[in-house]
Amino acid sequence: MKTYNVGIIGATGMVGQRFILLLANHPWFNVKVLAASPRSAGKPYKEAVGAKWVMTSPIPTNIENIVVMDATADMEEIAKSVDFVFCAVDMKKDEIKALEEAYAKFECPVVSNNSAHRFTADVPMVVPEINPEHIEVIKYQRERLGTKRGFIAVKSNCSIQSYVPALHPLKKYGIKNVLACTYQAISGAGKTFETWPEMVDNLIPFIGGEEEKSEKEPLKVWGEVKNGVIETASSPAITTQCLRVPVSDGHTAAVFVSFENKPSKEDILTAWKEFAGVPQELELPSAPKQFLNYFEEDNRPQAKLDRNLEGGMAVSIGRLREDTQYDYKFVCLSHNTLRGAAGGAVLLAELLAAKGYFD
Ligand SMILES: NC(=O)c1ccc[n+]([C@@H]2O[C@H](COP(=O)([O-])OP(=O)(O)OC[C@H]3O[C@@H](n4cnc5c(N)ncnc54)[C@H](OP(=O)(O)O)[C@@H]3O)[C@@H](O)[C@H]2O)c1
Known about the structure:
- The protein has helices at residues 14-23, 45-49, 61-64, 75-81, 93-105, 138-145, 160-167, 210-221, 265-274, 278-281, 303-306, 309-312, 338-354, and strands at residues 4-9, 29-36, 69-70, 84-87, 110-112, 152-154, 175-184, 224-226, 229-231, 237-244, 251-259, 292-295, 315-322, 328-334.
- By secondary structure, it is α/β, with parallel strands linked by helices.
- α1 packs across α13 (338-354).
């Protein structure tokens, strides 16, 4: 496999830091450019990120002295010097839309963590094990943008990365209704207990915009490429409540589900165990070997014990049992800044690279 030069836009942020660590020894991707806001631009990375570095591992030595560029003012230069960029920035939605589209129009593909383009109809929103075929819509997006190489591909919100993978292999039983309550870590807000001390011994029953994303995004992921766009699925009916909990990393979901054709418990366990997607078939470097992992113990999965399973790229499931109102209920967990953010984006970029979209 050839190697690609990569830029990280938003390199000083929480997700940007994860990208730096995940790409430190990546076999295909070489970090060449780091960019952020004008506040960081012109400074060596170590100085720009300063006390905002919150990873448990130190900054890789080959990254420390890279001078951070201005994501907007230096865009043309950045676009010319890399094969594609990862983007995870904290800006207004319309500014992010414009920024990502401008990079694409400079013929620089964008693999994004941001929500701005998730509902642009010709932008694929991909969980690589679930809907890898959606990247085929990129050819129509390129026609709209008037580009040869440039395009935008996005990953979905971190909240859905725990329960949608667990539901996906059960679609063959006709999923009718889903109720999911999510218990989301503070790193999902780009925070730690040091920067958000109010979260110690606390729970906040509201995360702005999260319930809408959690209910709508699965229907795009389960949609189909038709007439040059992704047509969203019309079912199942999904309702959610999303709570912020005092956990550093790892989003948990309590899920209730009803089916057209109710499977047995054994059918569900087998579907989870046997499920593998394109990333596993292609042996992409960041793909977990076993994507869905069922724990028999009643007190699993636990955020602290299980979030780092397979490098934080696997989904952990437990407590499958029949319910009195729905057919079944279970609990699932995924690492929100790994599988749910930077890791999910790296896996998507690996899929795009393997399919020739960066050539
Ligand atoms: N944290 C998660 O678990 C998670 C999961 C999925 C998706 N996301 C999404 O990923 C994005 C980043 O999240 P985060 O948690 O990493 O945020 P964050 O820690 O607040 O970092 C924000 C980044 O954006 C940069 N930035 C801010 N204003 C900018 C501007 N005008 N031009 C260029 N760069 C600018 C910042 O640079 P400076 O340091 O120079 O200000 C910083 O690098 C958000 O869209 C978020 O919704 C986050």
